[in-house]
Amino acid sequence: MKENLNFIKKHFVTDLSSGLVVFLIALPLCLGISLASGAPLFSGIIAGIIGGIVVGITSNSSINVSGPAASVALVIFTAIQTLGSFEAVLVAVILAGIIQIGLGYLKAGTVAYFFPNAMIKGILASIGLILILKQIPHAFGVDEVFEGIDSFKNNDGTNTFSGLMNIVGHINYGALIITIVSLFIIIGWDRPFLKKFTFFKFFPSALAAVIISILLNEYFKASASSLALDTSHLVNLPVSDSIGEFFNFFQFPDFSVIANMEVYTIALSIAFIASLESLLSTEAGDKLDPYKRRTSTNRELKAQGIGNIVSGLIGGLPVTAVIVRTSANVNAGGRTKTATITHGVIMFVCVLAIPYILNLIPLAALSAVLFVVGYKLTSLSIYKSIFKQGKKQFLPFIITILVVMFTDLITGIIVGGTVAIFFILRDNYKNAYIHDKHSGSKEKKVLKLAQETTFLNKADIMLYLDHVPEGSHLLIDGSEAKFVHHDIFEIIEEFKQTAKFKDINLEIKNLDKSLTTKFWKKQ
């Protein structure tokens, strides 16, 4: 379904609302990822703005939201140490963008179509679990670490579970009250009886929760209550006193390092990780899309590449499509590009015009928003649905969840994909042929080769031939085969000698060497 003007108009108000919600979620994450990367704090904001506006315009995805991602934070952190400056790393970000555009033109984006559904659903469910677990400390006012949203380890040496243990003895009751009130507002806002009113239908519940949380904390301050939250529990955005000072936050690449080969190695690392996460997020986003629209993954790679070039030129971190923001966008009602672009525009306007107001937002309120997003990604019904599909779907699904939970997103993609491929190869191994047995004066067996019989089927076919009884009749039927690997012909040729010694009457039907090349010539 292509977006037309009427479709955009239909969802315009809800898209604006969704863009605002995504902005509220993205803002602290952009700052947190900057900290985790060891980069200037404002570099994450730049990447968020570019991911929203530039990638939003150039991509043909209706719901993807791009920005800085925790998956590349470690690469940037190491790169700064290696190259000696963030300005030098910006050159690698630009080169990574060029590589991504090249991959798009080479149609490498089709790799995304090979991601197994069980793995993609596992990634989404694991992100939901991590969102919930990572936000629990912030719900209780333990706000030392806000980054590492898709990684088991935090940049301060703690991890997801040790962060939970750190809550004991450090509870901030003001933050806890704000979390509970925010959750009550967000959950209650979606009740059917309230949705009958236009205000509740179009005004975002997340924004309502944020506004109430600000007012509540300001009340705590005015009453000199011990429940008042200080700046360490609030959004911490760089503040400029003038437009000139604002633009001083932007940095520019140091092209003097262009001859340094380490820059290209770093660029390849950024391009690989950013492309892999973007492709996965695109596939996952298409599954979340209520209209089930298909995104061109090749165009998505090009859009991400353009985004990284622009981000690198003005001092931003690398951008990728990010599952957390995309799922938040869908859950908030985003249905067209308007929501994605709006979140980028709002981020630019707000950090320029009202940073003081943004710095009043309690992190606890944002945690409440992420709790709800996380729950929708990892609800019990999802687990039940996958379990009913059998172990071939459930095992890749649950293994992906566990690996992501205890490592990071990229490792989860690799391991989950490997497990899914294992089941595919195992099925292929078992389905090399169909065999039948006929009784009579002389036992007769039929080995009918599958349409595609590859070298992966060698062991199974050899094992079958080894167990053909002496004195029997064996028919090897290739009438349904479209391609037979050369190794299979070698096995059959060798078996001809074995058949003579075992007094096996061997009959070969519709099988000739042209099948080793016929399939490929058709492609």
TrEMBL record:
Q: Does the keyword Membrane apply?
A: yes
**Chief localisation class:** membrane
Membrane topology, as annotated, equals: Multi-pass membrane protein
SLC26A/SulP transporter domain segment(s): 12-400
The lineage's top-level taxon is Bacteria
Q: Which UniProt keywords apply?
A: Membrane, Transmembrane, Transmembrane helix
Q: Which residues span the membrane?
A: 12-35, 41-58, 65-83, 89-106, 118-136, 167-187, 199-220, 263-284, 305-324, 344-373, 394-425
Intracellular or extracellular location(s): Membrane
Protein name, UniProt field: SulP family inorganic anion transporter
Write down the species.
Psychroflexus salinarum
Lineage, broadest ranks: Bacteria, Pseudomonadati, Bacteroidota, Flavobacteriia, Flavobacteriales
